Amino acid sequence: AQTVTQSQPEMSVQEAETVTLSCTYDTSESDYYLFWYKQPPSRQMILVIRQEAYKQQNATENRFSVNFQKAAKSFSLKISDSQLGDAAMYFCAYRSAYTGNQFYFGTGTSLTVIP
Amino acid sequence: DAGVIQSPRHEVTEMGQEVTLRCKPISGHDYLFWYRQTMMRGLELLIYFNNNVPIDDSGMPEDRFSAKMPNASFSTLKIQPSEPRDSAVYFCASSPPGWRDNEQFFGPGTRLTVL
User: Which residues of chain B have pLDDT under 50?
Assistant: First the structure.
């Protein structure tokens, strides 16, 4: 099974500043999908951004962008202009393009935004 | 769409009792997933269904856990008998047909406490 590693259990950022959350994964597959999910204190899991391995261009969604390094198997999330509402647990997830719809999640990074 | 619906939102029970968690996926979605989230183990996939058929139940902890999907709009996760170590948040998620970059849509979760 694929493994997804988030090496930063906790991170903090000053409001309006930029923070980068790290994610690495282990796979032998050439095509797959990567996701970042946000889980605020309400517990609801919300998709933040997704990336297909075959796409060279890094995905961007408003203040959220990724740095996808396929050779290094790295998929970091950058949050610009951090807001208080960004405080949450962030999960990185991997899904194969070949073997069904199962997601493999990392252990999460807890982000605190300091006013 | 109402999103993925889970009930109950909170459940408190005593050790040895039977617990049934319920999930209604988003209409038109043909994949359904059950996850368990704890501080110690993070987000674990328990079982997932495709077109009401269980595809992978390797994450089900033991025989005390069972899951069913009698039709496309309803699934249950049952624990019998329950134990204190089953205390966790249980999430149901669904995703639409196809293997492209489809995300999983999560329900709000059921917080289970076994005393």
Answer: none
